[in-house]
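Subject: sequence -> structure tokens, single chain

Hey, anyone have a minute? Need the predicted structure for the following. Not urgent.
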Amino acid sequence: MTQGLASIAGRPASGRPRSGPPPALARRLDAALGAAPGADACAYLDVGAGLVLGTSADPALPQEALDGLCRAAGPLLDGAEGEAALVVSAAGLAALLAVPGEAGTALCLLLAPETPPAEARAAARAAVAAMLSAKGA
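Reply:
Had a minute. Here:
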């Protein structure tokens, strides 16, 4: 499923300072981002609550962009059954994938707009797998 990224997340701009995720979550997010070729950022989302739980990204990524993606994640992932939902526009591409075993959560990867859909979905699966593997570390 696709939706215009510019209308949801906008372009990265100067963001306001915010605290980072707890160290264990930061390690998991860093592992996820490292496993996703071409990803510029990732965010861990509580889809039900509409909250961004943590990010591994350029600090200039605005909170408003992440909040917009979080709001869009629920409807986009509804019925996706293990398939990554894509949100695309000239501004970029977001791949959203539910995190198995962690009810109501999803991982969001931000990639270049020219990333082929199959590569974006593969990157999302690899990132979620790395995040789950790092959980026990």
